[in-house]
Amino acid sequence: KILEKIIGELKPFDINEKRRIPGGVKRTPIKHDPPEKRKTNFEEYTKGFTKEEAIFEASRCLRCYRVVTFAYDKQ
Question: Structural domain of residue 61, as residue ranges?
């Protein structure tokens, strides 16, 4: 309830707002294992982004309070 109150006061999202999707920079495609490999195991087939790809993808966001993208290093 507290978080809902804070978000409500900040008004980060108006459900009635009509927005067009900005163009210009295409999404970075997510890498996947080929079907032949996926048929032989139960590993995650979506590989996600490299650190550089994640940073680039995050830079596409023009209204970062709407969409959150983050990058982290496994250390």
Answer: 18-75
